[in-house]
Amino acid sequence: MKKILVARAVFPDVIDRLGRYFDVESNQADHIFTSAELGAKLADKDGAFVAGERIDASILAAAPRLRVVSNMAVGYNNFDIDAFNRAGVLGTNTPDVLNETTADMGWALMMAAARRMSESERWLRTGAWDRWAYDMLTGVDIHGSTLGVIGMGRIGQAVARRAKGFGMRVVYHNRSRVAPEIERELNAEYLDKTALLKTADHIVLVLPYTAQSHHTIGAAELALMKPTATLTNIARGGIIDDAALVVALRERRIAAAGLDVFEGEPKLNPGFLELPSVVLTPHIGSATEGTRRAMANLAADNLIAALGEGPQAGQPPSPINPDVMARWVSA
Ligand code: GLV
Question: Which CATH number fits domain 3-95+289-330: 3.40.30.10, 3.30.420.40, 3.30.200.20, 3.40.50.720?
């Protein structure tokens, strides 16, 4: 029987399912492995189920039998894919099953930021609320405003689709324009980044983290935004220069931000904790029971199929670098 490591705690029934095919070493205590520990655990494994753990050349070098690492996440910036290709290891991820849930979260954060929900609740809980006031906690409107989506992939499109009910204009920026029929369906207008930053009332970031997208939003970009605008990040830490955002919020150069992801998370810039105008959540964009189950099962499907088992044997549903599999066959 092939051996796999499930590197993080996950639904017990998913572990049971994997156990039908493999000799499973699980980690239901959810111990966070150091890189060296992970390398040691993978030394005799054929496959691994991870959820954001960094997998690089040094770990792959410690794992000579490893064929597949299945990420329970759509983003895979934790994988050094060049190193995977060199080592002939397949990476897989969990696209699509989380699109709608993550888009909902983008809207929740955007609306909470625009309407000062966290700030209002924190204040209410202090017991200070003793009267109505015409200017109490006034925010900015969502309906009838302009939504700016940066990163028009599947989740970005799901974010944009929701704008119709709010009577919003939709503008977007992406590495390349999406197909005309998608633009038409979403009523979305392509703008260059500068024009989008100047035009949008509410900007939502939904792009993958790469060397190119590092600090897509920094001091210069924040300076182009409207003082009444909000900025929401449901993508990855590092896409925003968090230190620059702290300064922009502190100096009220933009109205508010909604952040689910942070540079260096789970640590975050302490400046955010001092600011009333930022809504903070701990990377829960896909966190509904149904979606997390779908992600875990898709990650399991990928692992089972990539290791030649189950109904989809040899055809994992969402491979990142499928070319390496041809090398297994010919090896
Ligand atoms: C979550 O951040 C994911 O990439 O799925």
Answer: 3.40.50.720
